Amino acid sequence: MQRSTFTASPIALQGHDRFADRMRRITEGLLDEGALLTANLRISGGKAPWFALRVWTGREKTVEKSLDIMGVRSLVPMRKGPDLRRRGRVIEGQMMPVIHGYVLVQMMALSEYLAGLLGVEHVIDVLGGCDRPMRLSDKEVSRFNGLASKGNFDWERPS
Known about the structure:
Blueprint: H1 19-43, E1 50-55, H2 60-70, E2 73-75, E3 78-80, E4 84-86, E5 89-91, E6 95-97, E7 102-106, H3 111-116, E8 123-126, E9 135-136, H4 138-150
Antiparallel strand pairs: 1-7, 1-8, 1-9, 2-7, 3-6, 4-5
């Protein structure tokens, strides 16, 4: 049977906040957790493990800048893209991320801290989840970053 009337009552009438305002307040609360992790990282002497954040493709540098403002140590290895030839001119290749859609982050391995990073704009999730994230060793990250800074991943180099 179909009914043409709906019986319902509106929810969240006690506050005068809009939905966007409530969500902004919640995400700012999550980002405050990120400030705590930065203090813990500095106290521990930088011996925290590295993790990978999955982000929107093309927003890697934006997320890195947001994390730097928060005080979270992050890394996006970059490489030189292909040179373009237009009407006899050579346009220098732009810098692009080596790993599209991922940002490396160094932090304490607490699920609350990792969940706090989900409040950063353009972050999708933590690789492996917040409860059991996939760790990267400091040796792997420094070797990978060293290869990227030397130009081993540039477009013209054979892979």
